[in-house]
Write a structure and sequence with these properties.
374 residues, alpha/beta, FAD/NAD(P)-binding domain, 9-stranded mixed β-sheet, 6-stranded mixed β-sheet, 10 helices, 15 strands
Length: 374
């Protein structure tokens, strides 16, 4: 089989490496629009402890210990300078996104999968001319500006809050959620360590707070200093660092009713994105990739049947993921309405925000059990 994977992020890399292991004779080509050194973001949250959890991409790396991942089992919520602590109930893994992607790319290359960098997105005519049996679009939310067929045009919605993905040398040993009242409004930080030296520090606020604080007129350096000042107590006077090219923005939710059209299939954020507050983005990429591996491997003689099978299995999980993420996003967009609550009360409200939905981890576990069953 001749397969093209568009995008060398977690979803595409996981699919390419795992399908190649099952079918060493297949030809797989990966193209990536960025150069080899470009990788967006700081740390990501993964499930479980490598190498034991099948939804943690580090579990597929022989040298996963070299990534300096950090394991977290405690959740800490801070409000009114008071904190509430509880167990997360599961082991969570904080890992540097750049190191993880680099290791997954090296895994693909070790399997003789070629990755071509700084490649433009191919037109539909070029895809047909190269006679690919399967085209996997896994280039994240960027494909909103370049989808391949009308049937795969995404639905796009934007949240009301502004957010920024910072890194900081301050180490947060728990999964932290920090509510901070400021003269310009309420700021919320989501933080956790992802290495022995760095933590992720995602900050969000309402559009009104964003404008009133003057963040819209600040340089990146001025914004860093301002946010470090807002959270100076929690940061212990450590700085926050913005990655070049990242800006304060509204969260974009991208979704589809169908995962494929013809021989083109969507994977990862190109299929469905979800608010960072539930921490399942990379997990969904891995689960989707493993489901696609299963379908393509078992129906390799008929791509249409393979993608029908994948669509039938992945879309219910994606829709549940979307529901969980949407409820969580809306809860944070109304955070200012909860500032009068006591710390235990706001912690309870946070814990119960998705209680009306079926448990997402159970759905993911069931999908993985099916996908990995041989």
């Amino acid at each position: 089989m001749n397969i093209l994977v568009i995008g060398a992020g977690p979803a595409g890399l996981m699919f390419a490496s795992q399908i190649k292991k099952l079918n060493p004779q297949w030809h797989i080509r990966i193209i990536e629009k960025n150069n080899q050194e470009e990788s967006v973001g700081w740390g990501v949250v993964l499930p479980g402890r490598a190498p034991h959890h099948p939804a943690n991409p580090l579990s597929y790396l022989l040298d996963h210990e070299t990534l300096d991942a950090q394991y977290l089992e405690t959740f800490k919520l801070t409000h009114h300078n008071d904190s509430a602590m509880k167990s997360t109930g599961v082991t969570l893994c904080g890992a540097e996104r750049k190191s993880m992607i680099k290791a997954l790319r090296e895994l693909c290359q070790s399997l003789d999968i070629n990755i071509e960098y700084e490649q433009p997105v191919l037109e539909e005519a070029q895809l047909a001319a190269d006679q690919y049996d399967l085209v996997v679009v896994s280039n994240g939310i960027s494909h909103t500006t370049h989808f391949y067929r009308e049937a795969l045009k995404p639905k796009v919605d934007f949240g009301k809050n502004r957010y920024m993905w910072y890194g900081t040398p301050q180490l947060f040993n728990e999964m932290n959620l920090i509510f901070k009242a400021h003269s310009s409004g309420v700021f919320v930080a989501h933080s956790y360590k992802y290495s022995s030296k760095m933590s992720t520090f995602v900050v969000e606020c309402s559009e009104q707070t964003y404008q009133k604080s003057g963040l819209d007129d600040m340089t990146p350096e001025q914004a860093e200093q301002f946010i470090a000042g807002v959270f100076s107590q929690e940061l212990d006077a450590q700085p926050v660092i913005a990655q070049a090219g990242l800006k304060w923005r509204q969260f974009m939710t991208l979704s589809h009713e169908k995962a494929y059209d013809g021989n083109v299939v969507l994977l990862g954020d190109a299929l469905q994105s979800g608010h960072f507050s539930i921490g399942h983005g990379t997990t969904m990429a891995v689960v989707g990739a493993q489901l696609l591996v299963k379908s393509v491997h078992e129906h390799s003689q008929n791509v249409e049947v393979a993608l029908q099978d994948f669509n039938q299995r992945v879309m219910p999980v994606m829709k549940l993921f979307s529901q969980h993420a949407e409820i969580s996003r809306l809860w944070f967009e109304s955070a200012e309405d909860n500032m009068h609550l006591t710390t235990p009360e706001i912690a309870q409200a946070f814990a119960q925000r998705r209680a009306s939905l079926p448990a997402l981890p159970e759905a993911l576990e069931a999908a993985l059990k099916y996908a990995l069953k041989r």
